[in-house]
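Next comes a concrete protein, fold included:
___
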Amino acid sequence: MTLQAAEIWPRIQAELRREVTDTTYELWLAPLRPAGYEGDVLLVEAPGASRGWVADRFSAALDRAAATVLGPHARIELAGGGGPTAPSGSGRASGRPRRTEDHPPPPGAVREELNPKLTFDQFILGDGNRFAHAAALAVAELPAQAYNPLFLYGPPGVGKTHLLHSIGNYVRAYSAGATVRCATAEAFTNAFLGALHGGDVERFKERFRGVDVLLIDDVQFLESKARTEEEFFHTFNALHDGGSQVVLTSDRLPRDLAALEDRLRERFESGLVADIRSPDLATRMTVLRKRVHQDGVELTGEGALEVIAERIDTNMRALEGALIRVVAYHSLTGRPIDGALAEEVLTGLYPGAAGGLRRPAAPTVELIQDAVCELFGLTRDELLSDGRSQRVVWPRQLAMYLSREHTAQSLPAIGQAFGGRNHTTVMHACKRAAERLRSDPDVSDTVRTLSERIHADRHD
């Protein structure tokens, strides 16, 4: 490496940092090293495992940085360990060849069904989905190297499928040649049964095992299907052992899939398990505003959106369905889309939410703290104190865990409600509680009792 290249490189790095996020820079561009500078070309070494991906995704940014620092004709060429630049899309640590899709799918197989509209750019972030989004993006940027498997769980309609398809679309866009297979558990089951009946099991196996990324939606539907579970178990092992990425979604935690074989549940829990909770009010308002903008809906203020967001707090599908109903009523009657119209329409759709019959509010951290104090015979001051005795520590950890599970509060907000503790303390408490919940039936009974009490208190 020449002295000149060493002097140039920090200025190039500064330009690159302006172009991309800190996470992206640290992940992909920080490992680059200058190797030489001659004429208008700056030679840069990149790790072989990521060279192709960096070339595909960041070549324009690299050239812009070079032009800014060295002049309009300057450019950057990537190399690695003295060898040629890796083929486009070859950035996989496993070195496994990419699969191709040159032949049509056999009978009983399913095609990848990725929805091109479901991307990370279109995903609306909120406190309830921020962690899952970050995990999904990390997997998309580093398949089989970040978290493998990635298991996303949450109630219906909160964005699990959106993140699943976002991963697939991202890999296809930025990892040329990578094969992505996306299917629901039901489609996997039907394809497997079709292959069994058609005597084409080996072709089926190749289509599901011969891929770089496998995305399976609604994996809970594998429960109680013995032959399909057996096949999926071997498919999972083949992919995982071969260096492929597996991403799964479910409406429940792996441990709660009681009808699934233990060995499958254990594999689902062997990577990262990330939850997606129901959207908070701010996220619901953002979803509605975005949908209104996309559809060109004319509003009379935001009164209608506020009514919808306050009434519909379960999931995104119900939220958008309520908006569609209000807009349809406007189209049929000619009435302006305002709060009064939304109230009238939603009272018919959700009668239990009208006026004094409005559904009870979500549990609060304070309500959970009171329930835990009552059950364990503590005062609130003891629960929130710095006491380290087991008599206090375990109830406090449990209360933090329940606050995370039953409220829409962020980890920092929960920490503040527990005497100003930081989010790391809350994360540790939730982890400890989850570990005991998995291994101790008495703890499971305690959590069930507290959950029932918390939700019963909402009606009082």
